[in-house]
Design brief:
single chain, alpha/beta, 2 domains, 8-stranded parallel β-barrel, 13 helices, binds pyridoxal-5'-phosphate
Length: 453
């Protein structure tokens, strides 16, 4: 059983006057300065998570690479931080590439994912010199070969393989590695497609023009990603075994040497005091050891090992701050306490029945005497951020702090009910920096084509 405070960024405390402080900054001061809803990220917590991954990866006897799955949350300032920390980026669209480059991240240290990459995605990646394109299906392989040949570019590719290994996440929508998945090549198809590609490149496939196209693709590795928010290493190790078997078959038939291997991301984080702890270090250490052993057993040279975590790098660093409004008491049923955000900045409870906790940041020292539901202001009955949380009796104007808000919240946000997306603030030691301003009403109509007639 965890306590609420341990879910917040590192160094979060309650000061003697009962105020929640994030790395020494009072949450209510931040809310007064920037308004609510407000997303606060503690950069020290992100750096600490990066260091933990690196420490654990260091036990791998070969090369390693840490990348950040930017779909968890991306803005130029975060891309800049990752670049400064030497962390590469997993991007999933030309849009993410654009934002990452705006933050100064180097495309050569990115890899592009997506199960239906468009010409625009692929062309943008080729033109920018993205380090690796993770090919998801045979249609994409054809298209990429054609585009790379047109642009006369060599491109490094991995195949995304769906190894048909089940992993337990919090919701079926976050499972990606089982047979019934829209992502990646099933093992048999991966073998056939890779075999075909290698055969064409070696001139044994009667390729002609096509063979020349495929010459622009350099197959350097294999990739899997089982799902998001799991906390069991064994399925990932099993997925790696299956990919290594595939690598052995490709070596035997085509002399192919796998240079890179990426077992994805997906490690979970506790969101709620009832969740078990999910320490990163033992997970990575075990995965690394299992991978090295499995390679040795198959007499495979150690590939460079890339991990691409998202949530476990940034989720705990983020806190969402909301202002409490009204309450509705339904005797014998429940009490709803309303806040000024919800579904539009955090769709996870509606999408996945995700469970959160919260505390009153301006009264964090008080006894929690009632259990309430936290409701957002949007026109959906599903806009309930938390079904049940213990709090002091909340009054209008109180400040509600929701921890573990750093991943898959703002990156999945919307303007439903013409909500304005919140401001984002980075706390870096003593420094507090606004990195994304709150949207304005003008932003809401910025894309509209006005008919002046
Ligand atoms: C291909 C891929 N890699 C990595 C991740 C990151 O997952 P997580 O944020 O759970 O670590 C995702 C997200 O689902 C993904 O789709």
């Amino acid at each position: 059983m965890l306590n609420k405070l341990s879910l917040f960024p590192l160094t979060t405390t309650i000061d003697p006057s009962g105020h929640l402080t994030l790395r020494g900054h009072r949450a209510d001061d931040l809310a007064a300065q920037f308004g609510t809803p407000l997303y606060v990220y503690d950069l020290g917590t992100i750096r600490s998570r990066i260091a933990t991954y690196r420490r654990a990866l260091a036990s791998y006897p070969g090369q390693t690479h840490l990348t950040y799955a930017s779909k968890a949350f991306l803005c130029p300032a975060l891309a800049r931080l990752m670049a400064a920390e030497g962390v590469g980026l997993d991007i999933a669209s030309a849009g993410e590439l654009f934002i990452a480059r705006r933050g100064g991240a180097d495309p050569a240290d990115m890899h592009l994912h997506g199960n239906n990459k468009t010409r625009r995605d692929l062309n943008a990646a080729l033109q920018a010199g993205v380090g690796c394109i993770v090919v998801d299906n045979a249609t994409e392989l054809q298209l990429l070969a054609q585009l790379a040949a047109e642009q006369q570019r060599q491109v490094n590719i991995w195949l995304r393989v769906t190894p048909d290994v089940a992993v337990e996440t919090h919701h079926r929508y976050t499972v990606t590695g089982s047979a019934d998945s829209k992502f990646g090549f099933p093992l048999k198809e991966a073998e056939a497609v890779a075999g075909d590609l290698l055969a064409k490149q070696q001139g044994s496939g009667g390729a002609g023009e096509q063979g020349r196209d495929f010459a622009s693709l350099l197959l350097s590795g294999l990739h899997l990603h089982l799902g998001s928010h799991f906390h069991d290493v064994e399925p990932v190790a099993e997925g790696v075994e299956r990919l290594l078997d595939l690598a052995v078959r490709l070596r035997e038939k085509y002399g192919w040497e796998m240079q890179e291997l990426c077992p994805g991301g997906g490690w979970g984080v506790p969101y709620h005091p009832s969740d078990p702890p999910m320490p990163v270090e033992p997970f990575v250490t075990e995965l690394v050891a299992a991978t090295a052993l499995s390679c040795r057993r198959r007499n495979l040279p150690l590939p460079e090992l890339t991990l691409e975590p998202g949530r476990s790098l940034v989720a705990q660093a983020g806190v969402a701050l909301y202002t409490v409004g009204g309450r509705k008491v339904i005797p014998g049923v429940r009490t709803y306490v309303s806040i000024d955000g919800g579904l539009t900045d955090n769709p996870r409870p509606a999408l996945y029945q995700a469970k959160y906790t919260a505390l009153l940041a301006n009264r964090a020292g008080e006894a929690e005497t009632e259990t309430v539901a936290i409701a957002g202001p949007f026109c959906e009955s599903g806009d309930v951020l938390i079904q049940a949380v213990d709090l002091p009796v909340a009054a209008p104007g109180d400040l509600l702090a929701v921890p573990v808000a750093g991943a898959y919240q703002l990156s999945m946000s919307s303007n439903y009910n013409a909500a304005l997306r919140p401001a984002v603030v980075f706390v870096d030691g003593k420094e507090v920096k606004l990195v994304q301003r709150r949207e304005t009403f003008e932003d809401l109509v910025a894309r509209d084509v006005v008919d002046e007639s």
